[in-house]
């Protein structure tokens, strides 16, 4: 089994997700998750803003199957919106429909999302809809479409590994879009599975939206992609206010600051909350470089208990093999 598959399976384990919350962020995740409370995430936002970095804030949540959980998540997101507004922070919201009741009832989810987007619209705060696995894709796009009929502060994510990604980007090019490669394990019937194909489609989507779209958020840690984008925007004279680079909190901090110094718009994806485990595992699954960046913090004695001794041993063995 590949390392990516190990971490993806761990991200979907409800028992481990629950156990992780008992440890807080002591297992290395504090390096990539900006705390567990609204106060903590706001403090991080102000620190990054002072460095010229904008933020998009994700209130983490997994396995939401009860309406009470979804409503609690909505209230937490509304609290963040209020703080962003009152403290005049350079930040916006990223959210997952599944946390707001998508797996319970789509109409119930829509009502929760409407409340969030309406409040954010009142304060001129952008709301980005994160996309998850293929099973939720059609429902998520329906929700984006419905809310886009009422509000102009809504955008979404296009995942380059999906075969239909170009059709999606064409349909939603009037929105502000974040373009990513994709973080879930999908069938070859609906998604590219080779790194070469995903990378090629990723570049194709970025170029298309830079030329035809409203605003493009380019979410990558790959300096090769970043250099390609720099050359492309220079060649096509695309203004810097039409796009931004995005990276995850805790990764490639020097490169984030370097891009700001070069005059590019930059936004850090800032996750927070007690329900951090699934997010953390998916970040480790995305690319081997992500594992390397946080290996020293992750693989402690406590983490071996949480991840499972076998999985941690597999991952460490994989990293050892790669470095030899």
UniProtKB/TrEMBL annotation:
User: Which parts of the sequence bind FAD?
Assistant: 131, 159, 181-183, 195, 220-221
* Gene3D superfamilies (UniProt xref): 3.20.20.220
Cofactor list: FAD
Query: What are the binding positions for substrate in this chain?
Result: 96, 282-283
Instruction: Decide whether keyword Nucleotide-binding is in the record.
Output: yes
> Highest taxon of the source?
Bacteria
- In which pathway is this protein known to take part? Amino-acid degradation; L-proline degradation into L-glutamate; L-glutamate from L-proline: step 1/2
Name the Gene Ontology biological process terms. Answer: L-proline catabolic process to L-glutamate
**Enzyme Commission number(s):** 1.5.5.2
Cofactor mode of binding and number, as noted: Binds 1 FAD per subunit.
Q: Per the UniProt record, which residue ranges are transmembrane?
A: none
Task: Describe the location of the Proline dehydrogenase domain by residue ranges.
Answer: 42-290
An example of a GO molecular function for this protein is: nucleotide binding
- Protein name (database record): proline dehydrogenase
Specify the species.
Answer: Caryophanon tenue
């Amino acid at each position: 089994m590949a390392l990516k598959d190990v971490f993806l399976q761990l991200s979907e384990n409800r028992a481990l997700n629950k156990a992780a919350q008992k440890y807080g962020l002591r297992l290395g995740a504090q390096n990539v998750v900006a705390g567990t409370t609204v106060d903590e995430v706001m403090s991080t936002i102000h620190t990054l803003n002072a460095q010229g970095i904008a933020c998009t804030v994700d209130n983490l949540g997994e396995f939401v199957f009860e309406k009470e959980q979804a409503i609690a998540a909505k209230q937490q997101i509304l609290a963040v919106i209020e703080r962003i507004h009152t403290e005049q922070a350079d930040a916006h919201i990223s959210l997952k429909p599944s946390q707001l009741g998508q797996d319970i009832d789509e109409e119930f989810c829509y009502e929760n999302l409407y409340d969030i987007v309406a409040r954010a619209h009142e304060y001129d705060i952008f709301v980005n809809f994160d996309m998850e696995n293929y099973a939720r894709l059609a429902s998520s796009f329906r929700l984006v479409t419905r809310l886009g009929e009422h509000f102009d502060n809504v955008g979404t994510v296009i995942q380059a590994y999906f075969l239909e990604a170009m059709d999606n980007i064409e349909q939603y090019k009037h929105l502000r879009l974040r373009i990513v490669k994709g973080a879930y394990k999908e069938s070859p019937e609906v998604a590219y599975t080779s790194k070469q194909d995903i990378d090629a489609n990723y570049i194709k989507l970025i170029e298309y939206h830079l030329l035809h779209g409203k605003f493009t958020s380019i979410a990558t840690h790959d300096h090769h992609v970043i250099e390609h984008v720099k050359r492309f925007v220079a060649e096509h004279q695309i203004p810097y206010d039409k796009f931004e680079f995005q990276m995850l909190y805790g990764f490639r901090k020097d490169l984030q600051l370097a891009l700001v110094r070069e005059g590019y718009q930059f936004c850090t994806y800032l996750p927070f909350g007690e329900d951090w485990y699934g997010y953390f595992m998916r970040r480790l699954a995305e690319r081997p470089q992500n594992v390397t960046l946080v290996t020293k913090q992750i693989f402690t004695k406590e983490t071996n208990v949480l991840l499972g001794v076998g999985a941690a041993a597999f991952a460490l063995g994989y990293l050892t093999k790669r470095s030899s």
